[in-house]
Amino acid sequence: MGSQGSHLALALSLLLLACAPQASSDAVRCPEPVTATVPTNDPFAVVRLYLEANAAGDLDAAALLVTDESVVFESGGDEGSWSHYREHHLGPEVAMFAEFDIRSGDPQVSLSTDRSLASVTLPIEYDIELKDGREIESRGTVTFVLRYEGTQYLIEHIHWSSRPRAAPRPPQVAAEVATYKAAKEVFAKHCGGCHARGGAQWSEKAAAHFDMSSYPFGGHHAAEIDQEVLRSLGQSGRGATMPKSAPGSLSPDEMALIASWARAFAVAKDAGFHGEASHGDKGHGHK
Q: pTM of the predicted model, to two decimals?
C-alpha cells in the first residue's frame, strides 16, 4: 500500500472538516461530530466516505480509500484501474461539476466468513449541475467489494450502473393510471375472458376492437375506449351489451370504478395524451 495507510487518517479528518450536512434526510452526509473516530473497519462507513469525497470533488481523499489494485466497471464497461478511471473519466467529469448531490438508499452489506472481504450494494440517486448550466438527474445501483487491509477496509472493486431518471408522469396520466389500477380486477373479471390473451374466449376479432392484454389498451377503438366501454355497459342511454355472458351484470361498485377510470381517461385524452390507434398498437401513447 506504500504510504497509503499512513495518510489515511489525516485525509479522512480533512474530509470530515470540509463536509457540511445536507438537507435531505436520506442524503449521503458526513459523520458527526467532526472529531469522531472514522470507523474504517466498517465497510459501509468506507463506502460513505468514498461517495462523500466524490461529491466534494476531493479525489485525493477518495484515492486513499481504494487499493492499488482496484478496478472499476461502469454501466457494463471496464474502466480499468481506479487510477486510470480517475485520470481518464472521473477526474475530467468532476472538473465540469458545479454541484453534485448524491443520495443513497438502504445498503446490502455482506461479509466473508473470516471478514477479510466485504461487499456493499446500495441504490443511488444523484443530481449534477454542470458549470455550463446543464443538469443531470440519474438513478442506479453501485456495488463495492472491499478487502480488509491491516486495520481497515479498502475498496478494490466498484461497479457503478445508472441511467437517467424517468420524467414524472403528467398529473392527468398519473390520475388515469391510478383509476385503472383500482378498476383492473373489474376489467379482468368482466372483459378479460374475451379481450385479453389467455382468456377462455379470447379471439383475434375481439382483440381487434379492444385488446386488454396490457395497459394502455390497444385495438381499433383504443383512442375512444372510454366511451365504447361505457356504451357497452349500458351507461349511454342504451341497453348494455356487455359483458357478453351477462350484459349489465356489473355491480354498482364495479360500475363506479369503471366510470371513474373513464372520466380520468377522458381528461387525459383532452390534454393530448391519447392518439388514434390501429390493431396491434398499444392504443394510445402516454407522452
A: 0.49
